[in-house]
Amino acid sequence: MSTNLIQWRKNVLDAISPSFCAAKWYNASIFLGSGYTGSCHLPLPHLMDKDQVAQNPSALHNTDHKKNVRKMMLEGVRPAECNYCWKVEGIQRDNVSDRVYKSIFYKYEDIVKLKELPWDQDVLLKTLEISFDRQCNFACSYCNAGYSTTWAQDLEKNGAYQNFIAPGGGGGAYQTDGSWAEAYGKHLDENPYVDAFFKWWPELSQSLMELRITGGEATVSQNFWRFVDKMHEFASPNMNFAVNTNLGMSEKALQKLIDVTKTLPVKEVRIFTSNESYGKHAEYIRDGLDYVKWRENMVKLLDNANLSMLTIMMTINNLCLFSITEFMDDMLKLKAKYGTVKPLLDLNILRWPGMMSPVTLPDDIKSTLHAKLLKWFKKHKQSKLLSEGEKAQIQRLLDYIEVVKTGHTFVTDDKALLFHDFKSFFTQYDERRNKNLVETFPELKDWYESIELNKTFEIKPLHNIGISHHEEGEYKDE
Length: 478
Fold this sequence. Notes:
The chain folds into 2 domains: 3-129, no CATH class; 135-177 and 209-450, no CATH class. It has 19 helices and 9 strands. It has helices at residues 3-16, 23-26, 50-55, 64-74, 83-90, 98-101, 108-112, 149-158, 192-207, 222-231, 251-263, 279-285, 291-304, 324-338, 363-380, 388-403, 415-433, 437-440, 445-450, and strands spanning 27-31, 36-38, 46-47, 127-131, 210-214, 236-244, 266-274, 309-316, 344-349. Helix 10 links the parallel strand 5 and strand 6 (236-244). The relative contact order is 0.13.
């Protein structure tokens, strides 16, 4: 827990309303290939109106859906799509939810003036995460074909994953080929959302505090490198530029990225990479990863690139808990050498798919892993290498594992169904990816082998599952 962050929430956000989050006004995640947008990575994105976007490029962000949610927030109503934050705050241990982290870096005066704006007024972005396409050389277990071409190749070759029975468990995401993410083709020809973005870019390039490119994997996308070339046309001296990358790249591509950090006409350059477990565990969870190569590439960046920060996005799933402390020990070694924000740890608790949530484990195993993490945290809680934000996120994870029963409003509370789908998925994952869960995680062997699979049940592929649905209405505690 961070007392300062809790006090800031009370003084700034809650002073406007107890459900207020500045990200709904100032931040966006935009997926140009599919035409979807959101204000952060937690609520599922929703489709942008291409006719509105053609008339008003800012409709890439200022959608009717977002405006309705803004109205709810100004009135103190908790939007259901933001239930991740409400669950965290509902633990009632003064945990810091993401509406704090996603609001606190905006100026106080910029936040408080939102209270006086009409709820349906267009607002100019201050921070933007944008994806041009789904090109990716990894196929992580918790990802899907909508965000990875390598995942799409798995489904094209082997067919849809089958035998999922848990309502809300997330199995449907592994049954669609993700073609909706390339509605306008791989190279974004005649894409109305791309056209609108480039029309909006001269204005955005001067107003943004931070632009962050994601994927897929940005560095394997031709569209990413084309845009980098375009950025040289508009100097953005007040903007930080960031790239999400899995760092599973060739030496040539890594050098190209290093060169970008030194030549772009921006204020600062930041790198965001991904990992949450150590060694063979990481390689199992994040198919395509070579842990040693990933770490070596990170060190090359830290040694040679012009970076103000390198953040590690940790997607906290149930399997990563087995070596999360070993992973953080390894990252503390880098912090000791390069500084506290090189790397900075960013712990994001996985909600989808529900069968991979950190709370979807047998109680005895979950308690053992919780105790291991708690012991590690007590040892490092006073460390100057960890920021207050990192400490608050670790405490939040500890409380989440201990208190929260299911990871999402629409996930069944029948864990037997989630356990079934966990085994069903990883049985197929092992066969397709030449892996072995019980050899990699021997602590799970007895429990995993005791699960009996339904051999006959199949569900039909669900179009756009995992991205097209968004929750509506007011959130109520379960």
